[in-house]
Design a protein that fits this description.
Elements lengths: L23 H14 L17 H4 L9 E4 L12 E5 L5 H9 L3 E7 L2 E3 L13 E4 L5 E4 L4 H17 L4 E5 L14 H17 L3 E5 L5 H4 L5 E5 L11 H5 L4 E5 L4 H11 L2 E4 L9 E2 L1
Parallel strand pairs: 1-2, 2-3, 3-7, 7-8, 8-9, 9-10, 10-11
Antiparallel strand pairs: 4-6, 5-6, 11-12
Helix pairs in contact: 4-5
Length: about 290
Amino acid sequence: MYVPAHRPAVRTTRRPALGRGPARPFLLVALLLLLAGCSGDRGEGGGPRKDATPPAARRWQPRPGTSWQWQLSGRLDTSVRAAVYDIDGFDHPKATVAALHRQGRRVVCYVSTGAWEDFRPDAGRFPKSVLGRGNGWKGERWLDIRRTDVLRPLMAARLDMCREKGFDAVEPDNMDGYRNRTGFPLTAADQLRYNRLVAELAHDRGMAVGLKNDLDQIPQLAGDFDFAVNEQCAQYGECAELEPFVAAGKAVFHVEYELPAGRFCAQSRRLGLSSLLKRYELGAWRRAC
């Protein structure tokens, strides 16, 4: 299973010169009074607005080394000692997210944004024109991510679901279709555009978002995503490619399936990854580094 809003640019405002000569002190006083009385961050009653904090500052930001549990199948085991739970957004109700929050956990909403799944309740809303080849998982087919006119509202609805259930973040899956045989002539530019769209949709809803795999585009996308989720970078000798996330103070949630923990945990600790050994079905079992 291979797995964002756009980070606003920092703006600076150049102040006009106040002028010269005897009028300058009076202009300075007037300007200070004007600034004191006309703050844009005040509410209707004159006090500070509750939403004055920029959304990016309010959004959760997992840090390197944060412990996590990834469970997408079986009965959810909430007893695992992990700060973060990554669970299926469709399969779990709001009450499950709330229960994990009461235990002090952050909760990530797993949804597929790059592939269609015939077992989801919204499967019938996807027109056949955007469905491509199978992606190797039963009942799943790649999506034509160029068709943002069709996919944007569908993905927005899925992320609305995550927000309404109280999730802190989103793990969008199948975000590297351009490197696979999808049935569509997808390009790297198509993938960058779509991945940034998904990030924007998540951020607009106040949620953090992780970049799933898509290692080749990390240099372009690390600034748009709040953390990374990776499968098998140790097995394929790719873990160093995730360093831009760690360098930016962002967590990398990493799993291996086939290597024994002794083969990758030392490197994971050195790189600052949050690494697990899991089985392919992604049940409750885990072994943390």
